[in-house]
């Protein structure tokens, strides 16, 4: 169980570090069947994808060590680089490469921002009948929906107010 105040990304990264050493042995051992290797590769890929998805919500944090500690990044980084190269073009390799990019705050931040906006439905006006995608302004209270103009926010308020709350992130 995670300690109080620990962020989800930190907890996921710590758990990935913990299992990666053991499972890396299974992935590279000669006696491991192809089915077992596929299982470990899939399980690690899924865990890494969850961490990657959580990290996209912290893309605006310039100090990535506030999301995942430097200590854990130093432990996780090298194995992610190995997986990114070994499994290039496969699920585990692609996810590993994205995590390396996040932790190094590289130029793929734009891609992370696109994922973040899409997951928050920030690419189109929040009024269902509108499809405007430019110059969207965020709801000041919840910051979970965007509108192209004030009139659309007012028109959607009857529905939106049921879901509108002050966010903590």
UniProtKB/TrEMBL annotation:
Entry keywords, A to Z: Metal-binding, Zinc, Zinc-finger
Q: Which PROSITE patterns match?
A: ZF_MYND_2
Query: What are this entry's molecular-function GO terms?
Result: zinc ion binding
Residue ranges of every copy of the MYND-type domain listed in the record:
127-164
| InterPro entries referenced in this protein's UniProt entry, alphabetically | Znf_MYND
Give the protein name, as stated in the record.
MYND-type domain-containing protein
Please name the source species. Answer: Roridomyces roridus
